[in-house]
Every structure is written in C-alpha cells, then in structure tokens.
Amino acid sequence: MIDKLIDRIKKTNAPIVVGLDPMMKFVPEHIREAAFKEYGETLEGAAEAIWQYNKGIIDAVYDLIPAVKPQIAMYEQFGIPGLSVFRRTVKYCKEKGLVVIGDVKRGDIGSTSEAYAAAHLGRVQVGGSVLSVFDEDFATVNPYLGSDGIKPFLKVCKEEKKGIFVLVKTSNPSSGELQDKPVDKKPVYELVGEQVAAWGEECMGSGSYSYVGAVVGATYPEQGKIMRKVMPKAFILVPGYGAQGGTGADLVHFFNEDGLGAIVNSSRGIIAAYQQDKYAGYGQQGYADAARAAVIAMREDINTSLAGRA
Prior knowledge:
The structure is a single chain. By secondary structure, the chain is α/β, with parallel strands linked by helices. It has 12 helices and 12 strands. Strands 1-2-3-6-7-10-11-12 form an 8-stranded parallel β-barrel, surrounded by 7 helices. Strands 4-5 form a two-stranded antiparallel sheet. Strands 8-9 form a two-stranded antiparallel sheet. Helix 3 runs parallel beside helix 5 (79-95) and helix 3 crosses helix 12 (287-307). The protein is globular, with a radius of gyration of 19 Å.
C-alpha cells in the first residue's frame, strides 16, 4: 500500500492528506436541516448530516489529493450510526481511488491488539466466511505499550500489504511532557523513531520506503529534521499544518532529497475552510468549493517551499 500512496502523490503532485474530522459546528446549516427533517435531532440525524457533509468534500477534492484521514473519534461520538458513517466514508473514498489512513491511534497488547489490527486493516473469521470490517489502508498506532502492541499490526501489514503510522512526536503543545524526556541522553521520541526504523525493516515496499511510517508534527520542525535522519525509510505523516500553525516552510526537512517521504495533513483548515475569512465568499452552500480552493492553496504552499529549499 505504501507503493500506491507514493504513486498517488506523484500523480497529484500533492503530498497532502485531508483529515475528514467532522464536527457538527462545521456542517453547514442546510445540510443539518435536511438530515434532521428526515431523521430528527437524533444520533441517526447527526450521522446523516456528517455523511452528506463528507460526501460533498470528497467529491470536491478527490482528484487533487492522494489520501484522506478520517479520525474515528469524530464518528464514535455519534455512536453506532456514527461508526456506520465512518465505514461508509472509508468505502466511498476507496471507490474514488483515494488511499485511506484510519486515524484510530490504537495501542494495546496481545489478543486486544490483534482484534484492533483485524478490525481496521485485516479480516475476521465469521463461520465459514472471512470478512473485512473497516478496511482502511493504513492505521495510526500508539507505540507506548511496547512491541507487544505493534507486532499484531506488523503481522497484518505483511499479510494484507497495508501499513501503519506510529506516533513518534505528536503536534499537540503538551507532547513534550513525555515525548521529550531524556532517556540514555536521547529524548523518548528519538528512541521511538529508532524502533520505528527497526520495525520498518521487516515491512519494505517495492521501493525505498517501508509500510511502517511515523507521525511527527509540523509544529516541531527541528525535531522533524532529526527524525528524517533517524527514519530514512519511513514515510512521515505530518499533522499540525494550517489551523495548528504549521506552514509549508516548516515542512521541508520532513521530506527526503527525492521529494518524497512525507505526507502532510490538514483537517479543519480544509473541511471547514468556508468558515475562514479567506474563503468566506463561498458561503455555506459553497463549503465544498471552499475546501477545494484550500487544497489548491496548500499544495502551492508546500510545493513552493520544497522547490525553494537549499
């Protein structure tokens, strides 16, 4: 699957992943009203509004980008109807040819980790049938329970030719409370990055990159520069662009000299672009067109920065 992601990045010239992280405050009023009229102000009504909102954005941007990243918590908050929309969204994105990164941040041990891996990347046995469940192409994984929590995912990655992105240095302001603590004269995040590189040796694609990637926030460009050297064969998923303060200029060191090696996420900066002053002219009815314009602007920012790096 890493080969497909790289191919899509090359074809679109856009190392961008759109975070499909819907919140009701992002959903335009006309979409909410139509959903509530049909299903009432219920979990089913909320899920329908989210689905219609997602579909509009996907239809507007799928030809510009290689991948999407739905954050499962934004769907879980609406219960079973929300999870059904998560699954429906994943399926629809794959029908559009997009690579899907499930932002699920799973991390546990033993049979629990095996179950998570099966649900999101693998398949489950039901009687005489073997069935896919959510069926993302990649999943985000929390490594802080150690290799016991990662090995079940590695096993599924090998079987299904899928991938994971391991949390290394996250974009949130308090990440340093734990991730920056020194151990053997190195910060914890660097030790985790070294482990990611080792896990990745077991899961190489057909080219120079592994199925085992890493999450390193755009809000920490200096750490990104370090981690690029520590994990030369890992694709880096870079959150924190746009709404969290990251810019194209912050990103150049996340990429390798081949212009690959990283994919940059923007969530509300794209899916709620119509709420920004810059794109307010599109209005609520044009929310999807505003999202498309935001993707184009992000692509230009990143590519200009990459072209200008020393």
